[in-house]
Amino acid sequence: MPAGNPLFNHHNHEALEQNTMMQPPIVPPQQQPGAGGGMFNSHPQQQPQQPPLPAAYQNHHQPQQPQPQPPVQGGGGVGTTNPFHHQQQHHQPHIPQHLTQPQPPPPATVQHPPPGGITSSANRYPPNPALLQQPQAPPQQPQQYAQQQQQPQSQQGPYLPPQNAAQQQQQPPQRYVISGQPVNPSNLYPTIPTQPLPSPGPTTNNYSQQYQTQPGVGGGGGLPQNSHGHNNQYPAPPQQNPHAYNNGGVGMGVNQVTAGMNNMSVTQQGFNKLWGIDHADLLKTRQVLPPEGVKSPEIRFPHDYMNHVNCSPDLFRCTLTKIPETKTLLQKARLPLGILIHPFKDLTQLPVIQCSQIVRCRSCRTYINPYVYFVDQRRWKCNLCFRVNDLPEEFQYDPVTKTYGDPSRRPEVRSGTIEFLAPADYMVRPPQAAVYLFVLDVTTLAVDTGYLKTLCDVLLEHLDTLPGDSRSQIGFITFDSAVHFYNMNSSLSQPQELVVCDIDDIFIPCPDNLLVNLDESKEVVKHLLTNLPGKYLSSQNEPRSALGAALLAAQKILGPIGGRITVFCASLPSVGPGSLPNRQGDVKTVKDLSTALNPSTDFYKKLALDCSTQYIAVDLFFLNSQYSDVASISCISKFSGGSIQYFPNYHMVENPVQAKLFEQAMVRYVTRKIGFEAVMRVRCSRGMSIHTFHGNLFVRSTDLLSLPNVNPDAGFGMQVSIDESLSDFQTVCFQAALLYTSSKGERRIRVHTLCLPVAGNVNDVIQSADQQAIIGLLAKMAVDRSLSSSLLDAREAFVNAVVDVLSAYATTQNSLPNLALVAPKCLQMLPAYTHSILRSMGFRADLRPRLDDRSQFMNQMKTLPLYQLIQTIYPDLYPLHTIASVPLASVPQSSRSTTPENGEEEEKYPQFPVLHLCSDRIEATGVYLLDQPDSILIYVCRNVSTQFCEDVLGVQGFVALHEMDDLPELETEWSNLIRNFINYLQSNKPYQVPIRIIREDSKERMWFVNSLVEDRGEGSVSYYEFLQQLKNMVK
Amino acid sequence: MAFTFVAFSYILALIIDAFLIFFAIFNIIAFDELKTDYKNPIEQCQSLNPLVLPEYGLHLFFNLLFLFNGEWFSLVLNAPLIAYHVHRYLSRPVMSGVGIYDPTSIMNTDVLNKCQREGWIKLAFYLLSFFYYLYAMIYSLIST
């Protein structure tokens, strides 16, 4: 990449995007469709050498004898009845062959994003292109594969009895071999890797590979998912429930058993799977949660290329991965249609383009994207409005090969997510500087919590790393019943405090120097930050809070420039403008809730709108232990594009867990990226329209969202409606363009494009549903409903939504057994999520949660990115004690990896299966990790093995275990692995969260037990009872 | 032929109704502008909100005249609209100023469509009642 190329410069200032500078901003060649697709077919001769995964699985069951295996360790063919027997057969022919001709690993696997229980930000492309081809494969394909596979096997395995071979031919699980994934033995043994992993190829993890391979291929499917003992057995008729086969599958026999038993219904199930109409009776299937976690369904296009260039599901997701072609069809499917978007997520790889003219459609202003149609080399057809546009001369130039002629090689048409450096016509005024104004609560309640100390320390430490350039400005205001300003002129030796007591008619005591240049006045700012915490500790404080006046003052100070106001609030505003009544006592019944959850005044909303037009965003931190009307105050952030964070019962000393969380959140807050003066426009194909917007934003026109600031932790949702028939089109597109000013004063446009196929059949539509996105959207709609109507209405709407979907599915199926609650594979977790959300703090129908907790939960439902939203509703539960038997995966190359010490060797973490949140999954000998958005709980049961205690917890046994805040750093293998796993979980969060280790018999166990939402709770039904209720409602 | 109080109130109703027709048209145009991105919702609400109460008041005013005159039929015709106005104003979003339109929710397509449909229905109602008042005025003028 020529750095001096004027046409195509990679401007990169953000550390997070550093990768991009080094690489050409296009899809790396390894990820290109040709290579990717090839991995399926082009290495047939390698297949027998690659040990199929199930064997690896079996080997895990003797981790105590970690013999370094030769890299050619034979694979347990799934088809054979005895895996060990099978291995022997393979070894002999293999070793010489492998040694003489070491084959390079297939290139396709090199860049394979490591799939994990949790999708990482590095996975920018739908992972395995080979899988995507499979739905199109003719039904006989599985057999073809089997034969392909058979041939080398019979050559190399001379001892294979003929009948065994014949049997193999029919056995579907051979698909594991076909997946073309070489397995590195160092993956299989948690011990030492035999070598420092020279070949990058085999390091993909076999565990989730195994499951990923599964759905597409036509073979019948006993999922060998559950070798950990928690099995899934309601007594189910076998043809209904493929999962039920696994009962015997604990230990090494999983694959034999599944393989053997599946023979019976292979054809039927194979076809079902092939056509994607696999379903299960929820009442009988207990294990509906896939062990690797629920993933977004893959979008399936006829062309591979289109899959590769689509926007990552972490950034942009639609509730349906196939759009129904008419409104009637959508109504028939009874699914909500909408998109969820996380537009400003921190990305590790983002092509950035600077060019003199950004190519856009002349009529609908769509940015050029991978899904446009090039009529010829000079013209392109817009994929949203179908207008034919001219291509500028410049676009012919391919910056990578430095040649002219082929517009399809441009990075703009190679990636679903791209960032442009905007020329001057995208500015209404010169880009603003980064401006931060902190508005601090210094009432008695606030000072008592001690937050000032933490905040000032964090700020002092990160003053130099605040995003910004030499123009950055900073200011401080404190308020109790008066508003205190600080003159921080650089000529002063210490800041000068100015107190304004006239809060009813607030004015700015001096015209400048309240907001100062950070570089010039750094010493004064540091002086203020050092002395501020002590200053208010000593003096007599006011209990009353004049938040409204302080906000008005802040708005006046920032008005001419715009920027970010950060408000810390620990008490109810009680004097001056914007003072609020305590409404807590008004709520006597659940019906009163909808008034109490609505703002009691429009002061904050009006102020937010004024701020919004002046490019000011207000971020809120609540640190209250008493009622402070989050519902009313949060309006200031809701309509100004701010963020709301809530630390109930915060106290620096008395609540160390919350204190730690607050500190981490503050560090993240002051150092995270920020986009100023942002607007986002969401366009969609002709025939569809955006209906309702959710998130902290102000809708300025039908598709233009005003976001005075945009932050990387904000998610948005939009409901979409279909206005005209889409039957003429094969695909539809959504494009979100976020125009913002970076903290360095550059105007940038980040464009995300999502393309989805159109379906004309109700079954296809239902089968394409994305259950997590659906819950994400339903939650947002339910929040609106409970504010405009009532909470009970919202709950009912939730249940109805699920009943509707399941009824719609039932009507598409011809012969369903009575008394069954059948759900397609893609919607099986929907009832569980719904059940869980109905019991959550926000939507439960009793008065136990505090009003503020409920309000904040609803705010979160509106603004959290989908990944965190799902985790809030349904946290991830992992069985840590199964460490001996789970496969390992390497830590994804996410730049967010918070472990700096992983320089020398690649880190591995065990891929624990995700468990249902149900107490009968909890074994007495187990240790469980509950991954919640704001904490990680490790729950140690009474009969935990001594070895685990010694190796991981650093104590002799359960008796000696104390509650701890972190795992001890022991130099044992298990301890390393588990800490790696926790680091991996932490790296998926915006900031590190506190860890808590809980004994089974402690008081704190209730934190854990309350999270097991599938159990029956006080005043709420269990998951199973909920399913039965659903059953009665589904017609 | 006699110029009675009844005739007077119908003449007044006729004139006021002409104004109401303009209000309805203005509303429809305003929402259409919002839909087609010509106007900022904050400004649009600022221009619409002050007109809401005058419209309701004018409508209520000539209905009070009908009430005093004992024009029961005309009153019954207008009663549903009065009830709707009262309900609409009572269930308005939390606002410190006058009016019923909130810039933060007005851009929601459901709300926008509802407001626009309301405008069209009112326009039709006012137009029809305009002719009715014309007829009733002439009737009360010529009948003695």
UniProtKB/TrEMBL annotation, chain A:
<dbReference type="Pfam" id="PF04815">
    <property type="entry name" value="Sec23_helical"/>
</dbReference>
<keyword id="KW-0472">Membrane</keyword>
<dbReference type="InterPro" id="IPR012990">
    <property type="entry name" value="Beta-sandwich_Sec23_24"/>
</dbReference>
<protein>
    <recommendedName>
        <fullName>Protein transport protein Sec24A</fullName>
    </recommendedName>
</protein>
<feature type="compositionally biased region" description="Low complexity">
    <location>
        <begin position="203"/>
        <end position="214"/>
    </location>
</feature>
<feature type="compositionally biased region" description="Low complexity">
    <location>
        <begin position="142"/>
        <end position="174"/>
    </location>
</feature>
<feature type="domain" description="Sec23/Sec24 helical">
    <location>
        <begin position="770"/>
        <end position="870"/>
    </location>
</feature>
<feature type="compositionally biased region" description="Polar residues">
    <location>
        <begin position="181"/>
        <end position="192"/>
    </location>
</feature>
<keyword id="KW-0333">Golgi apparatus</keyword>
<feature type="domain" description="Sec23/Sec24 trunk">
    <location>
        <begin position="431"/>
        <end position="670"/>
    </location>
</feature>
<dbReference type="InterPro" id="IPR050550">
    <property type="entry name" value="SEC23_SEC24_subfamily"/>
</dbReference>
<dbReference type="InterPro" id="IPR006896">
    <property type="entry name" value="Sec23/24_trunk_dom"/>
</dbReference>
<keyword id="KW-0968">Cytoplasmic vesicle</keyword>
<keyword id="KW-0931">ER-Golgi transport</keyword>
<dbReference type="Pfam" id="PF04811">
    <property type="entry name" value="Sec23_trunk"/>
</dbReference>
<dbReference type="InterPro" id="IPR036174">
    <property type="entry name" value="Znf_Sec23_Sec24_sf"/>
</dbReference>
<feature type="compositionally biased region" description="Pro residues">
    <location>
        <begin position="102"/>
        <end position="116"/>
    </location>
</feature>
<dbReference type="InterPro" id="IPR036175">
    <property type="entry name" value="Sec23/24_helical_dom_sf"/>
</dbReference>
<dbReference type="InterPro" id="IPR029006">
    <property type="entry name" value="ADF-H/Gelsolin-like_dom_sf"/>
</dbReference>
<dbReference type="InterPro" id="IPR036465">
    <property type="entry name" value="vWFA_dom_sf"/>
</dbReference>
<feature type="domain" description="Zinc finger Sec23/Sec24-type">
    <location>
        <begin position="358"/>
        <end position="394"/>
    </location>
</feature>
<dbReference type="Pfam" id="PF08033">
    <property type="entry name" value="Sec23_BS"/>
</dbReference>
UniProtKB/TrEMBL annotation, chain B:
<feature type="transmembrane region" description="Helical">
    <location>
        <begin position="7"/>
        <end position="31"/>
    </location>
</feature>
<feature type="transmembrane region" description="Helical">
    <location>
        <begin position="123"/>
        <end position="142"/>
    </location>
</feature>
<keyword id="KW-0472">Membrane</keyword>
<dbReference type="InterPro" id="IPR033466">
    <property type="entry name" value="Cornichon_conserved"/>
</dbReference>
<keyword id="KW-1133">Transmembrane helix</keyword>
<protein>
    <recommendedName>
        <fullName>Protein cornichon</fullName>
    </recommendedName>
</protein>
<dbReference type="InterPro" id="IPR003377">
    <property type="entry name" value="Cornichon"/>
</dbReference>
<comment type="similarity">
    <text>Belongs to the cornichon family.</text>
</comment>
<keyword id="KW-0812">Transmembrane</keyword>
<dbReference type="Pfam" id="PF03311">
    <property type="entry name" value="Cornichon"/>
</dbReference>
<feature type="transmembrane region" description="Helical">
    <location>
        <begin position="60"/>
        <end position="86"/>
    </location>
</feature>
